[in-house]
Design goal:
The protein has two domains: 15-93, Arc Repressor Mutant, subunit A, CATH 1.10.10; 95-190, no CATH class. The chain is 38% helix and 27% strand. The protein has six helices and eight strands; from the N terminus they run E-E-H-H-H-H-E-E-E-E-E-H-H-E. The strands form three sheets. Strands 2-5-6-7 form a four-stranded mixed β-sheet, sandwiched between helices.
Amino acid sequence: MAMSIRAGVGLKIPRFPSVISGGIRILSESNFDFGVQLDRAKLLKLIAFGIVSPTELFRRAGIPRTRVFRYLSGLVRRGWLIRKDGGYYLAATIFLVYRVRELDDYVVLEVLNDKGAIVDQRAGLVIINGKESPRACPRCPLLQECTSNIKSISKSLGITIKSVAPADAYLELISTIINEGLVKMLLNDYIDIHVNNNESV
């Protein structure tokens, strides 16, 4: 069952040609984990750079054609992509991740601050998948690239980042998106849930 929640979020979210909606999509943790596995993440990154044709994705990714189509179909079903006019597009600019757990008589929906993905015009799709030790950043060969990416993303979203190490800065960015956008919206707005009854569960 797919649900659509429409509400106002107080963040400046940039638009990209490779993204159908300039908004935020909240994926279940299992759907997020499905998308960030190596070959699927490679396809998502290519799509973020505007390569939306299945034939071109097959050529550029170096993944067998049948597997590319299977992955694309799975990424659509799991909320990462939207198929339109023969191409595949990212469903949102920002992907947050939630986990559901039962607590006594309640169901708790927990939005994770250590997992997510953000589209950036310079970096493509930046995937945050767990907490990295900020002590590893100074020795990492990608330090300069990560620092540049986080500056670009935070600037495009209008968010000021205080953390110096990219590992901390990415987590701060996700936390700010959750707190400035999602939490404020949930506290001060309302949510319409539109259930598509035509899809199988």
